[in-house]
């Protein structure tokens, strides 16, 4: 085994098969030659390749991940601003719009815990030239730390 690899490639292959996971940029088992870090961070050894040359499904997943990250950042910004009751309507069962996206937010607290756990789910609206608008289901969570406990 190569000393650069921190995990056995056969173990990784077996684990990914059991979890039905595949590296999105590769259609064959050639991912076994890449390090675990490359695989998990989705770094492409040919990263100089033009984005237009990527398969369409990879571009769509990349756009989805980018939009999901923007939405998560905005939700956390609202939580930390102290305006969450008004802007997110947590635990109300009502959906709220953030940009073009619709989500439902809730939180729960454990007595004596240092954290409030925020969770959200909803739909991101993604536009594709070929398919038009399509909703993509998302789920996220954030652990808000409290100095005083809840």
TrEMBL record:
Domain of life: Eukaryota
Classification via PANTHER family: EXPRESSED PROTEIN (PTHR35286:SF1)
Name listed for the protein in its UniProt record: Uncharacterized protein
Organism: Dioscorea zingiberensis
């Amino acid at each position: 085994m190569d000393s650069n690899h921190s995990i056995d490639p056969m173990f990784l292959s077996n684990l990914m098969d059991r979890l039905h996971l595949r590296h999105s940029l590769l259609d064959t088992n050639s991912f076994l030659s890449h390090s675990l870090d490359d695989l998990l961070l989705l770094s492409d050894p040919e990263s100089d390749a033009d984005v237009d040359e990527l398969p369409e499904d990879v571009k769509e997943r990349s756009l989805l991940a980018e939009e999901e990250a923007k939405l998560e950042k905005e939700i956390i910004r609202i939580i930390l601003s102290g305006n969450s009751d008004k802007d997110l309507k947590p635990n109300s069962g009502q959906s709220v719009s953030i940009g073009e996206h619709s989500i439902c937010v809730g939180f729960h607290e454990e007595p004596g815990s240092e954290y409030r756990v925020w969770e959200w789910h909803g739909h991101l609206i993604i536009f594709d030239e070929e398919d038009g608008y399509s909703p993509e289901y998302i789920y996220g969570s954030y652990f808000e730390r409290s100095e005083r406990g809840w």
